[in-house]
Amino acid sequence: MQIPNQSISYWKDHGAPRSFTPLQTNLTVDVVVVGGGITGILTAWKLSKEGKKVALIEARKLTDGTTGFTTAKVTAQHGLIYDELISTFGEKKALLYYEATEEAIAFLKKTVNELKIECDFTPQDAYVYITTNEMRPMLEKELEAYEKLGINGGLAGETARKNLPFNVEEALVMRDQAHFHPVKFLEAIVQDMAERVHIFEDTRAEAIDGRAVKTTNGYKVIADHIVVASHFPFNDFDGAYFAKLHPERSYAIGVKSESDINEGMYISEDKPSRSIRYATMENGEKLLIIGGENHPAGRSDREMMRHYEELADFADRHFGAKEVLYRWSAQDLITLDRVPYIGRAHENIYVATGYAKWGMTNGTVAANIITDLIMKRDNRYAELYDPKRMKIKPADMKTFVTENAKVAKELIGGKLKSTTINIDALLPGEGGVVMVDGKKTGAYKDEQGHCHLVDTTCTHMGCETTWNDAERSWDCPCHGSRFSYDGEVLEGPAIQPLEKR
């Protein structure tokens, strides 16, 4: 099946916020929000409505990060998480997690209705399903958690079997969830606040100095409150987030198929993971969105394009899909206990990160919590999401040790890898590590035959990046930084580009 050469998100192809200029002077405001995804945009919008003077800065373009490359499910069903939350935090806080997310869904729905935003906000039930009985004990434990917490859902194997064209052993449903078009939604929010908020694109934050956010182009934004909503916190050494966040990459395709699902949003708990939902295109036809193929960022046992091919094969076998119209990937950050870090990191600094693939709801929860904290209002969810929380289960500590051991292995192993590939061996459109004048060098040969050469050493902590053939990028296997083929930063925590050669 034909798969597009270039990565393009369906959401980014159909509506994007207007363009804003970079920051070109020092600025003083009440609040500076760093990050132009759902958290940053909603936080800036909410605070501006409270009368705060707000600046919003984004390193690239608004919604260019994970927000524009999501599957856009608006749901509190975050996999089989509630049994785990009960085990880690107890029933009371597990219920708070559910209620915070349900409030976020209600907030999004209310905002869509009040502003009359045309963003395909569609109520849907959400399902997590299994295709083998191996995962049945975990599903049954999750069902018990639903019953303990009073979650609006339960077993729904028959419904899932009716709606999905392959074997489903069992499924759990969570009712009254939704999906939408995230970029159209945020475009309307940006337009609504454009006259009240100072918005700057192509403005990368590099450091916090007291009340000032310093940018890589030499300017400062001085504020009483600093909100770090830059996906991976750009100030990650302050809080050791590089050691407490696990970056994962996942993939999605948009296909026209012979058979569609008529209703519902689906995600598999067994492996390989599969996420399934539909979207309605501009012409009224349905686009089937299939996601999955998760792996640690920068570390995969196959070439990256192979992940798209696996999704396309799944779509062909089960849905009769013959054409892939869109393909895109996203990077997600997972905390040690799977609950995001949201809240006050220091006296005047707030952080929001670690959404674990559920950014549409967790990002909205973050905007609600941080707005309340800045406005000095009580928020009953703040303690649960507190980024300074210290309670760590032995299993979480094991994860911490294991992940950081892998980072150490990559840091050392990457330096020892050798190559004998000559730059002349690269075909147009290909990239990789080659030898140039006796030195290992990252090279990409564009369609015109011009070679772009970079030092492959990540500017964050010195790990060696690897070539991503699907996205034409250099990806760091240690902490997930990503760089374009010519070295520009695509995703943090790195701030500086790769050195050109």
UniProtKB/TrEMBL annotation:
Taxonomy of the source species: Bacteria, Bacillati, Bacillota, Bacilli, Bacillales
Keywords associated with the record: 2Fe-2S, Disulfide bond, Iron, Iron-sulfur, Metal-binding
A GO term from the CC aspect: cytoplasm
Gene Ontology molecular-function annotations: 2 iron, 2 sulfur cluster binding; metal ion binding; monooxygenase activity; oxidoreductase activity, acting on paired donors, with incorporation or reduction of molecular oxygen
Domain of life: Bacteria
InterPro entries in the cross-refs: FAD-dep_OxRdtase, FAD/NAD-bd_sf, Rieske_2Fe-2S, Rieske_2Fe-2S_sf, Rieske_Fe-S_prot_C, YhfW_C
Span of domain Rieske: 418-501
Protein name, entry field: (2Fe-2S)-binding protein
CDD domains assigned to the protein according to its UniProt record, in alphabetical order: Rieske_YhfW_C
Family matches, as PROSITE patterns: RIESKE
PANTHER family in the record: RIESKE 2FE-2S IRON-SULFUR PROTEIN YHFW-RELATED (PTHR13847:SF274), SARCOSINE DEHYDROGENASE-RELATED (PTHR13847)
